[in-house]
Design a protein that fits this description.
The protein is built from no helices and ten strands. The protein has 115 residues and is an all-beta fold. Strand 7 (68-73) and strand 8 (78-83) form a beta hairpin. The strands form two sheets. The protein has a six-stranded mixed beta sheet with strand order 2-10-9-4-5-6, with no helix packed on it. The chain has a four-stranded antiparallel beta sheet with strand order 1-3-8-7, with no helix packed on it. Helix content is 0%, strand content 52%.
């Protein structure tokens, strides 16, 4: 059974940084296109960062481009999201998952950015 566990969220002031982690079990993330998503109450889940681990290519939503960096450590079967220059509008619950054919969603990790 696939399990995705997100961690690393917290409360940070605007302009600060956080690094999120996504530990996967039951699947090998290097064989998939993986992504970071975020969701705020009343809104649809938004895909903000994608990594194709086979070639290391990445893509980002315009709202986070230049501030967020997605990466993986295949030896740990873990994906990361480095978030810099955080803004209040980045406040959300962040999730990781396979892009397209999603696995069951994990609990996510809350990121709160204060102004």
């Amino acid at each position: 059974q696939v399990q995705l566990v997100e961690s690393g969220g917290g409360l940070v002031q605007a302009g600060g940084s956080l690094r999120l982690s996504c530990a996967a079990s039951g699947t090998i993330i290097s064989t998939h296109i993986m992504g970071w998503y975020r969701q705020t109450p009343g809104k649809q889940r938004e895909l903000v960062a994608v990594i194709t681990t086979s070639d290391g290519s990445t893509n980002y939503a315009d709202s986070v481009k230049g501030r967020f960096t997605v990466s993986t450590d295949n030896s740990k079967n873990t994906m990361y999201l480095q978030m810099n220059s955080l803004r209040p509008e980045d406040t959300a619950v962040y999730y990781c998952n396979r892009v397209g054919n999603n696995y069951y969603w994990g609990q996510g990790t809350q990121v709160t950015v204060s102004s």
